[in-house]
Amino acid sequence: MKYFIPLLLLATPALAEDPVIENVDIAKTGTDTYRFSVTISHPDTGWDHYADGWRVLDMDGNELGMRVLHHPHVDEQPFTRSLSGVTIPEGTTRVQVQARDLPAGWNEGTTIVTLPTD
């Protein structure tokens, strides 16, 4: 037992790494709809610890769209996944993108991006 706790403490930092949003590409696809392509890096280790989603939020924190990532990307880092049909309220110029991992949940921080005008 005395060796178990130090080993547990050594394992904790790897689990504490948040997914990192490396890049966000946005394309306007309609009057008020957009396609988001988000590149994430995260030290996925398997089904117990992997980046499992990202979402688009308005500047007040309201969810506008969410992309669920259904499996680990252990051998594909960083990786890019897209979400189409995100409706953005008229007059909005910036949104936030937030990543999530299993088991920690949503990152505290977000990445703020400016929407394209055309």
What would a concise description of this structure say?
By secondary structure, the chain is mainly beta.
Overview of this protein structure:
Keywords: Signal. Residues 1-16 form the signal peptide. With 118 residues, this protein is mainly beta. It has a single domain (18-114), classed as Immunoglobulin-like (Sandwich), CATH 2.60.40.150. The protein is 10% helix and 47% strand. Strands 3, 4, 6, 7 and 8 form a five-stranded antiparallel beta sheet that branches. Mean pLDDT is 86; it is low at 4-14.
**CATH class category:** Mainly Beta
State the separation between the terminal residues, measured CA to CA. 62 Å
Largest sheet: 5 strands, antiparallel
Under CATH, the topology can be stated as Immunoglobulin-like
Shape: elongated
DSSP strand tally? 8
Count of separate structural domains: 1
- Count of helical regions: 1
> What is the level-2 CATH architecture name?
Sandwich
**Fraction in helix:** 10-25%
* SSE run: HEEEEEEEE
Q: Let me know the CATH homologous superfamily.
A: C2 domain
Report the β-strand fraction as a percent range: over 45%
Key structural traits:
five-stranded antiparallel sheet, Immunoglobulin-like, signal, 10% helix, elongated, 118 residues
Detail the topology: elements first, then pairings:
Layout: H1 4-15, E1 20-28, E2 33-41, E3 50-57, E4 63-68, E5 79-87, E6 94-102, E7 105-106, E8 111-114
Antiparallel strand pairs: 1-2, 2-5, 3-4, 3-6, 6-7, 6-8
Signal peptide: 1-16
Keywords: Signal
